[in-house]
UniProtKB/TrEMBL annotation:
UniProt GO MF annotations: nucleic acid binding
Protein name: Unnamed protein product
Short name of any one Pfam family annotated for the protein: DDE_1
InterPro entries: DDE_SF_endonuclease_dom (IPR004875)
Domain DDE-1: 2-119
């Protein structure tokens, strides 16, 4: 299961984790929720319409990655169709190794700047609507009730933000 692969054998298994998931129904079955509790993974649903803010992959690199994969698939089809007297049954799907190579090559073509740009909108402050303010307050309360939020930390300055510091180092 995906949760086991990514979380069961982590370095600090007793430390709880927070996993943000969209509202895809398979994420929220009773079996998945029960299974997530075993490796101390707390699941939290990203409200509809906010996935792009919480998942940088949707913001920055998913579209260019898929575009590159699509081009590789189309080139392969073009090569097959270009042969003389090709029949329907002669068109073959790509082998798993080919698809893995396409993904690896497509990913390597993405620049570090493209990936980093996925975090820019997350890091820039923007005014919150009343609905968002309420949703985030409810989220903070939920995290606090799960002992996943340290209220003693207080306000965090964006100048002290670890993500900002790491982006500055990467640049």
């Amino acid at each position: 299961m995906w949760l086991d692969y990514h979380f069961k054998h982590r370095p600090e298994p007793k430390r709880p984790l927070l996993l943000l998931w969209d509202e895809f129904s398979a994420h929220w079955t009773p079996e998945v929720k029960a299974h997530a509790a075993q490796p101390r993974v707390h699941l939290l649903e990203v409200p509809g319409g906010h996935t792009s803010v919480c998942q940088p992959v949707d913001v920055a690199w998913n579209a260019p990655l898929k575009q590159r994969l699509r081009l590789r698939w189309l080139r392969r089809l073009q090569e097959q169709v270009a042969r003389q007297e090709i029949q329907r049954e002669d068109i073959k799907p790509p082998k798993r190794g080919d698809v893995v190579r396409w993904v690896a090559d497509s990913w390597s073509e993405l620049s570090a700047a493209t990936v980093a740009n996925g975090f820019i909108g997350i890091l820039e402050p923007s005014p919150l609507s009343e609905d968002d303010e309420q949703a985030f307050t409810e989220l903070a309360n939920k995290l606090e009730s799960m002992d996943l939020l340290d209220i003693a930390v207080g306000e965090v300055s964006d100048r002290d933000d670890v993500v900002d510091m790491n982006l500055a180092i990467a640049e």
